[in-house]
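Objective 1.3, modelling of assemblies. Example input:
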Amino acid sequence: MANPSAVCNGHLHHHHQKQNNLLKSGIYKKNGITKGMKKNGVSNGTLYKKTFIEHFEQAPMYVAVFTVVGFAVGTIFGYLRDFMRAWGLEKRNIAEEREQQKDFVPLYQDFENFYTRNLYMRIRDNWNRPICSVPGPQFDLMERVTDDYNWTFRFTGRTIKNVINMGSYNYLGFAETDVNALKTVTIELEKYGTGVCSTRQEMGTLDKHVELEKLVATFLGVEDSMVFGMGFATNSMNIPALVGKGCLILSDELNHTSLVLGARLSGATIRIFKHNNMQSLEKLLRDAIIYGQPRTHRAWRKIIILVEGIYSMEGSIVRLPEIVSLKNKYKAYLYLDEAHSIGAVGATGRGVVEYFGMSPDDVDVLMGTFTKSFGAAGGYIAGKKGLVDFLRTHSHSAVYATSMCPPVAEQIIRAMKCLMGLDGTTQGLQRVRQLEKNTRYFRRKLHEMGFIIYGNDDSPVVPLLLYMPGKIGAFARRMLERNIGVVVVGFPATPITESRARFCVSAAHTREMLDTVLNALDELGDYLQLKYSRYSKSSHPELYEETRLELED
Amino acid sequence: MDVKRVKDYIYWLYYQYLLVTCSYVLEPWEQSMFHTITVTVVAMVVYTAYVFVPIHVRLALEFFSQIFGAQPDGAVSVAN
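Predicted structure (tokens):
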């Protein structure tokens, strides 16, 4: 019996190429034993159809030293101010109990809010800025000043007009006030009003919801979907319906709070794997299957992997092909939260599933929100009909939460029809292409200027690293002086030494707006010394070998 | 014109110092306190360096030249 394949030095040599239909991932069965064929050099290289480039460059050492020094100075002065407050040398502005209750168990733990009181308060004027127009590519800001170092604010009455908006999640530019675009929304508003006054299970299911759910299912290419009124509640109220005690949740390190809350509410065991790290995930899966539940060693009832499409603080895209192959191998379920990626990536805006060229059947639970790319509010869960029918009866959100408001549902319907091309124009596709162009342009220019940018080259979320706490406030204030509104983030949303400014590129941004922002960033980068990158790119990026993955070690 | 550029440059250096040490976020009286302490510490370092470094450098040079060649006073003489 001639053996058509010979094993030589551990590599399988295949003489009959037409037997190798299974070889998309290099698996070949011989005598019932599966062996994987690995190409030299590129691990899992056959799973990705296009290059996957992510950057997580580390800053030079002196930056880390200065960051820690900055936080130390802030902490020392924080202790000094707390001391003065405790001894009555200074007025206390924080919440405290009444005199009569001073002997009770304390209501406010003083030290827990140390960071908020002493560091956040000093630069608080950069957050919670009230805006007074639609958050399109430009918006109007209400000017406010403080007399007592950010403890209280007062409005001067002036509005700052036409501030370029680099912070809103307006990826496709559907947050607009154009009367023609909102025609159907106005009609529905006049027909239904704004309130639903009921939950889905009582009297809150309108024909608009049914229409929207069918449209979402067609858009994503799945059997059925269900929509909810609030994106955060979609995650936190539906994960407890899907998993319970005796199940295992494998959640990414940097998952959003809604996923973490849902996982904790469910009562399942939660294990964390390193961000986007497939070796860590595989190890956890193997351990889970080999050792089972902690004391009894029984098999887990269900293993579910929670990941996001685009992580909003890092700008990184999930490694979906590898996760799907892992999930198929170890028979786990996959829950994909496409809050930032639906509408924003993919050739026609259908999210990371389309971006990687995979089929929606690979993912068990597709979740997303309408807040980001569709200019509305709410979330959806899509998948097989059995799953969605189960959620209609068992989800907390369906039973207790008010359903989505009809004009908002109509806004999503019109945005989705525009994206799919059902309204007869190519405007949807143009928006997706414009977003892609804007993203690439913005990221390329920032890399060339020498800033440290995190994340995947195709993600419209662009975090620019600032590191030092003093620069957070300086950066945001100076950008506002130049009429550009940015979002800066520090601890606790990011690791303490990696504070950043997060830009959200939109399809509604014109080239001139992006150029204005880039020029301002260039000047400010020199003035504040933010250009930490040690890899200076030449002006010919095509000369670079694009299959190189720059990952943090 | 040059004076203005020099002044701007010095202001820029001061601004960098404020950003790096995070004294940019402090209130003015806290900043004065911080500057006083910093200037005092730096002055003490400079004074110590001025007083002690030349003496130590000279002693070190003498020590190393002792090992590598020239005989010091009262050295052990090699028996012929």
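The CA atoms of residues 340 and 426 of chain A lie 23 Å apart.
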